[in-house]
Amino acid sequence: MASEGRTSFVGRSGVLDTLVGLLDAADDGAGAAAVIYGEAGIGKTRTVQEVARLAGERGFLVAWGQCTELDGVPPYWPWRNIFSALGVAPSDGTEAPDTGRATVLATLVTRLDAVTRDQPVVLCLEDVHWADADTRWLLRGITDATAGRAAAVLATWRSAEVAEDDPHLPPRVLRVPLHPLPPRQTVELARSTAGGALPDDVLARAAEQSGGNPFFVGELVRMHLLDPSRSERVPRGIREVLARRLARLSTGTVETVTAAAVLGPAAELAVLAATVDRPEEVLLDQLEEAVRAGLVDPVDRHRPIGFVHAVVREVLLDEAGASRRARLHERAARSLEARRPDAHEALALHWAQVAGPGAAEHAVRHARAARDAARRASALDQAVTFAGLVADRLPSPDDLLVLGDARARAGDLAGARKDLLRATAAARAAGRTDVLARAALALSAGEGGFEVALHDPAQLELLDEAARALPPGGLRARVHARQAVATSVSAPLPERLASARAA
């Protein structure tokens, strides 16, 4: 089977050791079979490819079959390449609709005996969840037939997106689940896929969004490589995979998980129940359906509801549409406000997505509280986020000053300068000389910063304006002190001494 486009084989050493043990058994004539199962993109095919590569190096005959979701294919269609590799001709009855299953199985086992006299064999059959009844019957028969023969069978089965949860193979068939990669190995895979072309923060973000799914990792990394502007938030391949899972859910469950997506990564069951106006017991049943579909983490009513992959939430939000999202945000905000009025961060973000003057008032109130708490905790990025949310809705001199100061403390001096100059213009229009003076003081590195710009005519003009307009007091003293330092290389000594004495 072609191996072009294979990803690096990361994080599956334990699984690989188990499956190589099956090759050892086949090599010894004991025979073995395994089904590798997991969600789409988790690495089933890649794992079988690696085992097949090792088997080829050990002299095995490797034959591949591929099931398809297309309707109307001939009987035993997924086996055609395996029949060919083992030397089973169409004349043996494998393509005749009226040929009995037992005859096909007997023919295949006879050929398997003939081939394994010379070399061991590994048969790989992919996507058995799509297999027709004849193909599944033949697979069950051939896995039984491996006993006592130098043969191994490897099958893959996609969980989470099919109606059944098990391929119903004989008990002797080893079940090998593939789980999401741990965070460290997910980043390692992202780095390998990017080939050094992306910075670590982008790789870490892609790894987090992927939830440890190798296919998702590859799609997200390629999106960053090919579309740095991120015109699409979720790659099309991932969107199609998740759309399959969502299509299997009941309408009520889709509504519930969409509301959970709107509530955010820390959605609480009680708040979700109030948002969708359904009893918690109904929600638990619906969330369990989403768990089986591989969309939501196992639910515990005492813990927040979590999505298996961050991109699941993004897809749900995109599919909901702007108007429905806004309605859900308002219902979520009112539900959360009634239960946790001090959840200022979440409430600010919800109200910010709701239209209307009343919503803006709620958003500003909670955003100010979240902003001030973040500043006290020196959580500068959060402070900038919520300060920006306030200033976008209410560009008052005070709020623009806080935004500029927060940006400066966070190191974004260019952005801080723009906000602080906006603050001085708003302060001048409002007659707020105090804010104008504080904004002038903050231009270098924030109000409390120690850095002083020595070649900044705009700051000097603002300081001079403030010094003339301010009444005597501490703020005016700070302005004079800043003048004395800021003019160190641009003003004569007597002028600088005057400013220092005034301070």
3D architecture notes:
- Strands 2-3-4-1-5 form a 5-stranded parallel sheet, with helices on both faces.
- Helices cover 59% and strands 6% of the residues.
- By secondary structure, it is α/β, with parallel strands linked by helices.
- It contains 23 helices and 5 strands.
Number of helices: 23
* End-to-end separation: 81 Å
Helix % is 55-70%
Spatial arrangement of strands, main beta sheet? 2-3-4-1-5
Counting DSSP E segments of at least 2 residues, the number of strands comes to 5
How is the secondary structure organized here?
Layout (H helix, E strand, L loop, with lengths): L12 H15 L4 E7 L5 H14 L3 E6 L13 H7 L14 H16 L4 E6 L6 H13 L5 E8 L15 E4 L5 H12 L5 H11 L3 H13 L9 H12 L3 H13 L5 H8 L3 H13 L17 H11 L1 H18 L4 H8 L5 H20 L3 H14 L3 H14 L2 H18 L2 H10 L14 H13 L4 H13 L6 H10 L1
Parallel strand pairs: 1-4, 1-5, 2-3, 3-4
